[in-house]
Amino acid sequence: MKDSGRFPVRWTACAALLATLAACSEEEDAWRSFDGPIDVAIMMPNDILDVPVGFVSNFRSSKIVKMDLLHDTPLRDRMEGSWVRSMPIATGRDRLVEQIAFASGYVDASDYYITLFASDSTRDMLLVVPYLDTKAEWGPACIPAAPDCTPGEPVGDLVCGPQTGFIPRTPICIPELEGQAAVAEGGLREGILEVLAPDGTPTGYTVTGFWVREGKTSTETWTAVFDAAEGHFVVRGSRSGVQERVPTVGETYWSDDNEVEFVIQDGGGSGTLPDGAYVTFSTDSGIREIPMPGVIQDLRVAPDRQRLFATVQSPEDLEEGGTIARGYLVVLDLEPLAERELPAVEATWPLCGIEPDESGTCPVDARPMAMDLDATHDRLFIADASDTGVIYELDLAQPEGPPLALSGFLPNLDVAYVEDLESDDGYQHLFVANADVGSVSLYDLEESRLVDINPYTPEVDAIELRSPVSGLAASRVAVTIPEKSSDQVPLSTILVGATTYKGDLWAIHGENGCLMFASPEGAHLDSSGWQWSDRGTTSNPQPDVDLETGRSVVTHPCGGVTRGETWFFVYDEALQGYRVRASRSNKSGEFQDRIAYEDERFVSDGGEVSVLIRSGTLPTTDGDTWYFTVDSGLRPVSVEDLPSDFEIYTQGYGDRTEEWTTVYFRSLAIVPATLSDAVYKINLAKPNLSDEAEVIIYR
Predict the structure, then answer these.
(1) Quick check: 441 and 450 in contact, CB under 8 A?
(2) CA-CA to 181 of 20 to 30 Å: which in 271, 350, 569, 624?
(3) Closest Cα to residue 37, out of 670, 473, 467?
(4) Backbone Cα Rg of the chain
(5) Distance CA 634, CA 688 (A)
(6) How many CB atoms lie within 10 A of CB 32?
(7) What's the CA gap between 343 and 292, in Å, rounded?
(8) CB burial class (10 A; 0-12, 13-18, 19+) of residue 54?
(9) Is 176 helix (H, G, I), strand (E, B) or coil?
(10) What is the pLDDT of residue 204?
């Protein structure tokens, strides 16, 4: 393991399983960025920012953290210099911020913006959060503090703020103080508010010394109410909640997370405050709220940045008792952003997995979840966790009505679109994360059918991950993987990533749904080889070697079909063959349906293994047993505690060993791990236990 010496910790070859990850030494940064990271949106380099940027939402702090994904550091976006630590974007600690997306616009160097969108699940709100904006209004009641000055030092008509040289990207204001006599023109440095009795009459007490801080202050209303029984004020922010800290008259007060700072002073009044005396003011960081018809489950911005899609769930009480889940796709018009106006709700489509009744009401639950766009951005696919088992498909070129419902699925949580139309065996596939059952289904969009991952079995098999899936994402570009073709040529494929609640990140072939092997060996007989237990008189059968593969145990070529387990071949004289069972596939000691006969190749019921046992010169007797252990060849990346929704992006790089730089590509997954307060950057084609594993952990 190597410490990068910067903000993240780089793991290069911690050669063990998850327990070993915990054992690796690590230097923790004293300042931790993440507090419940739950979603990420990735902006690729453009005219505004020349590095890939990850915007990570945190549900405990309700802050949005900016990551420089090229240099593996927090985004250095401070005007003072790249050495100054980036500030998060505060939205108010009493919110539950989960989903995140962004839109940007660039006309020229004097006219551009980056606007973030986030869900507030406690209030059923969509937050419109300005990040960069060349046309931001500063106004007389907004700061930044003057650069390159000492706190408290007069700078013209202003006084330097506590953060030396801080210049917020967007204004942070106290608009309720505008027009007060002591507000200095050009920027708020001193303002006076009176503490009022419950009937609105002045008490003689005043509030002065206001401060707000980038990365701390959000848009909300603050109220301090005097509690006579306790003898102090109780402070509450409408989006930050009730504060633990309480003001003391005559002393500087700052809220729990330093969102606001002020001083309550006795201005020569009676010396007593009536119960319920109050003062109120508002802070404004540019954040605006748009009401939604329920809790937002996912956000997706159209590639042209003209529309924002939000899947929404809302419970509705039924007249006869109980509730039903109402699902919606809300479409917002983003064109007003170019004029710095609030996006407008363009349509709110009700979703239903079956035909609505005569009144147009959906009689069953609809639980829309995550979304994905196809490669040409013509179609939007929406997962649905209801029992109706559908995927919704919206034609973006003609969005005149609700999305079409594709049936035949299990209840599902997420979707990922993959296509390859250039190869001879071109395809358009939709990967569907099945709810609760720990599997991913593969759907062929051209043939409108589910693809059977393992034709050896009679049912249509899904991709088994054996732990509930927490997220899906797909790359758009083929990358070289550890597997090789039959003539030993390295394979390239488009990869799909799947995270599970167990804490694993799996890489899946986009063309066939097979899990990616960690090495060209694939699934294979482990080093212990075949073991023989001779129960009766001496017998001497022997396993044979397959001439084509050179193996005594031939495994399924599709990753994930052959599991890591021990196989037992127990001879039954009555059958004149071996009864076969596997330690994990056959539960409760059950045997395979097929019997293994000597001198005949045996293929297990599910095609997991194929073997040939040759009869010996001495007859095999009842109870004689062959057994061996198979290594599945799979090495998912361990992502610690509860990996949540994630994204994949493509990064090009060159091979400088050649005369001319050759451009290669890697698919990188950015995975928030919610419970461990970490974000992972993972090369999807590098398995976790290989010597070339590429995993970076941001704390």
Answers:
(1) yes
(2) 271
(3) 670
(4) 31
(5) 10
(6) 12
(7) 13
(8) buried
(9) helix
(10) 87
